[in-house]
Amino acid sequence: MMTTVTKHLGKIEHRFVADDQWRIDGQAATDFLHDCATQNEPVSILRTAFSYVHLLDFLDAERV
User: Which residue range forms the structural domain that includes residue 41?
Assistant: First the structure.
């Protein structure tokens, strides 16, 4: 699904921040979001609904 979406994005920068088991890589995701925030760049996050639970768990554990 994500491959199809990124093909349609064209030259827009995108990041794939998941491990080999399709779990979100919390550190990579927060690093990317931090970079976008400091550069005042808009962001769209495309994930399945439940994968956000893993991101929120990471953020809670890291107190980001």
Answer: 16-62
Look at residue 41 and tell me if it is in a domain.
yes
Count other C-beta atoms under 10 Å from residue 55's C-beta: 19
Return the closest-CA partner of residue 32 out of 55, 10, 53, 9. 55
Per the domain annotation, does 11 fall within a domain? no
Number of domains in the chain: 1
pTM: 0.65
Residue 57 lies in a domain: yes
16 pLDDT exceeds 80? no
For 20-54, b where at least 16 C-beta lie within 10 A, e where not — what string? eeeebbbeebbebbeeeeeeeeeeeeeeeeeeeeb
